[in-house]
Input
Amino acid sequence: MREFSLPALYEVPTDGNLTDLIRRNAAQHPEVAVMSRKVAGAWSDVTATEFLAEVRTAAKGLIASGVQPGDRVALMSRTRYEWVLLDFAIWSAGASPQHPPPHPARRPPLTRPHRRVRTPAPPPGRPSRPPPRATPASRTDPWPSSTPTTKAKLSDTAWAA
Output
């Protein structure tokens, strides 16, 4: 086997992270539009400085609601501006965004067909499903209704998990 190599075009800093991108963009190109979003039916540009300010605000909200470095935060959303904003906010807070797989009806088709397996009917006198496992309330509802202010919900598409 022959080996071939090229010198690296860019050296990745050992102390860097993804949020450096938006900070550098805001410092070097503050008034450049980095993305657009639809507001009230019309497209509006978002500058690097505006995006960084929104990311910092969302990150502060996550931290204030209890998200800590190393936590995982689930995002369930269609592709939209807020998804990108919250990804950067979660990284800025030191947490890790988790993106669950899409709803089965919206998943891309499988490359080969899968068989459906039929389970036999339960014997008479037995429930058709096993009883649900008992879990602590903190596992089933991380934000009990008695403390609504602790909920880390920043929009209709994101929450801490």
User: Anything to note?
Assistant: DSSP finds four helices and four strands in the chain. Confidence is low (pLDDT under 50) at residues 137-161. The longest strand covers residues 33-39.
